[in-house]
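Researcher: We're teaching a course module on how sequence relates to structure. For the next exercise, students receive a sequence and then see the predicted structure as tokens, so they can try to spot secondary structure elements on their own. Here is the exercise chain.
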Amino acid sequence: MQNQSNKIKHHRRWNIAKIKGVHWIRYLLQYTAMEIFFDDSNAPIFLNFSSQKDVKRAGSLLVSLRNDALFPKGSIKDKNSVISFVDRRVALEIAENAKERWKRREISNFEYLMILNTLAGRSYNDLTQYPIFPWVLADYASENLDFNKSSTFRDLSKPVGALDEKRFKDFEDRYLNFCDPDIPSFYYGSHYSSMGIVLHYLLRLEPFTTLHRSLQGGKFDHADRLFQSIDSAYRNSLSNSSDVKELIPEFFYMPEFLENSNSYHLGIKQDGEPLGDVALPPWAKGSPEEFIHINREALESEYVSSNLHHWIDLIFGYKQRGQPAVEAANIFYYVTYEGAVDLENMDDMIQKYAIEDQIANFGQTPIQIFRVKHPRRGPPIPIAHPLYFAPQSITLTSSVSSTISHMSAVLFIGLLDNTIILMNEGLILSVKLWLTTRTQLGGNFTFSGPQENFFGVGSDVISPRKIGTFLAENVKFGRQLLATMQINSDKYLILCGNWENSFQIISLSDGRIVQSIRQHKDVVGCVAVSSDGNVVATGSYDTTVMIWHAFRGRPSEKKMRTANFEISENDHIIMERPVHILCGHDDIITCLFVSTELDIVVSGSKDGTCIFHTLREGRYVRSIRHPSGFGLSKLVATRHGRVVLYSEIDLSLHMHSINGKHIASATSIGRLNCMELSCCGEFMACAGEHGQIVLRSMHSLDIVWKYPGAGKGITSLAMTREECFIAGTKDGSLLVFSVETALIRRGSMPQTSVKPSGAG
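Model: And here is the predicted structure for the students to work with:
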């Protein structure tokens, strides 16, 4: 025990400037806690204090220190970057804003529910008030699901306890006949969310396995009482008088919790069968990934979008308390509600501990966010997501010929805000405007202005000019050598492959090289930038990956001292020394991905090895290999944790989860020059010498649609946030693929969407 205690970290340190939110929340129904969120890969931290006064003082101080760290006295404050202590008033303002965004379909159902859970004090850091999600499907027996049938879905206007009429009659009788001078009448003695429910669902994953065993006195509960089947779990929540549980977020994004990958001995069921993986519905085809995919599709379906406001009223809204809750049969045992007991002023410690145990183990009703009826979601807007609703409506709408005197291939296309960054063969840089016409949401889905061109390439921001540097002789110039990044309002291009083993930062305001960094011992062969622009990863022929932080200097400072060197904010865009040097490869690094959200760096090499490291600590996680050991040419990865590897030797595509599980494989149509993801992460566009763009599903790698080009080989590709394609060709032309004019109007927009179990 002494050795174990020595390994425990008694002190932790966080960068106060990285705080993006401080929320005042409850612990055991008392407002004595706060949760701190960060804008890097640090997980949120949950702190409980002895009193409301202490937590409010500490939270306000943290917010003040954070704002002062980013904007010291005398500097110009960016209103969008200044944060406030999120107390109940601020939380309600955030909720109202999120509600309007959800109504306008700017955020998904999943995103909206996560926002509401956070604002209602639900936290991954506290098992007693874990985030709550609804059962959305009612059919766990069919071979296939039909999202056009209402019977496929659960009735979201009723609490789980009222879904089965026969069982509800028993609950209703108890409510009407209950008589106790100290305990108010209630329908349900158990709750829809509790620590036991969370540990029941997540039994097969650590640390929940250990926590479950601890709750059960050091051993697993009887096998027949453990989570064994999706269908039986749903049926039990409809029939068992002590089971009215809802779901947790993992049902919509984490297939791993359904598998007994650690081979725990969970016991033998009464039928003599050992308990292993969770039994899935027939429509999941035996695949946890397919189950999660279809369940998520169901959550985002039109039926749920049109009815989710009813469930929000029950869990977070006006039907949670008072007479509306009585009329909705939504009354739980009184101790689950805020304000039912005042623990802070309770003198009887034995009674206090008993009530705390009851609150911790038997459920807590979320903080009430809305006091009036929640509005219904607005109608779908197909034009906002054409790849999902109607991929066939996208066609080649315009072509821009090369403006360079001698035709040279466009080898890189980058997008930052409303600009297109181009790099042609011969290191010729140009920057052009990306033109869009604003969508009018009222009436028909039409665009203002001319009806012929909705999207297009505009005039030069920077006219074509040659970058004054030299590439190493053994480097093949292409997409992997370039990346764009934005710091505040300044835009930059990162260029690798230099003969002196450096990489360079080029200002996109004038095309000037503003910084050159030389730390690798051989040629820098690839680069990647995180989606937030804070982290840069470089891979080299020296077989190492280096991680760099962007330098976001404060307006009032002239110099910043870090370690043993000084940084002048006028001269440095990226810190001169790497944060981590990642090793493990035995050959040239050929492709990279870095994500602060996922806390991951993925690197591929010429010997077919792909290695995962954590971003924050630089710790090795796992390796996967190309099945035939062929070199990896390209990789893409989504924020949902799907990684696709491509080898130009056998033209193969292989998809893995971020946890290393192989999901799907496919063979590309010809040699690929480019692979790009849609902003939503659901689709991957591939293009190459064959001159067409092939759209694939990031769920299965199935082909969703093929877009014929202009008979020219495509050498570069980008996907805009409007889901247009911009393709660069061998002769220096730019091709724009966008939604066809005739299909914009509401009446003629195809209503087909990608099916949940199909290719996309």
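Model: If you want an answer key for the exercise: The chain has 13 helices and 34 strands. Residues 100 and 156 are 21 Å apart (CA to CA).
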